[in-house]
Amino acid sequence: FTLPGFVYSVGLSPVITAAAAKALELMQTESWRIAKLSHNAEFLRDTAQAAGLDTGPAIGRAVIPILFNSVWETMAVSQHLLDHGIYVPPVVQVGVPKDKPRLRFFISANHTEEEIRQVVQLIVDRPVVEPPRTPFPGEQPAAAL
Description:
Elements (H helix, E strand, L loop, with lengths): L3 H4 L6 H16 L2 H19 L12 E5 L3 H13 L6 E2 L10 E5 L6 H12 L21
Antiparallel strand pairs: 1-3, 2-3
Helix pairs in contact: 3-5
């Protein structure tokens, strides 16, 4: 149990191994899912770009980012989408460069074009929310040391 190869690794549990095996089986027997996933991802990327949204270097695969100008805007859009029943996690520094905060959309073969159009429209029509003047409402920012 103390050999270096075991100390810093974690074996897969039987349930995870079974799920991965089933996923590989489905990829082979239901290849339409891969084609639909590719279509949906490209559709989101293209629809977002046509609406003037920045998708960065997205190549149209399962994870599509939409970049924003500030952390505040990214968080506000994430909350706006959540208010409409759509969970899209924000990704900010240290996960991405400080000047490139984003939402990461994880697309599946089960999404519809209508759902994709709806989420893009919600982003385009989002309300403008002003950032607070201080980091925490009612408090002054800490002095630099």
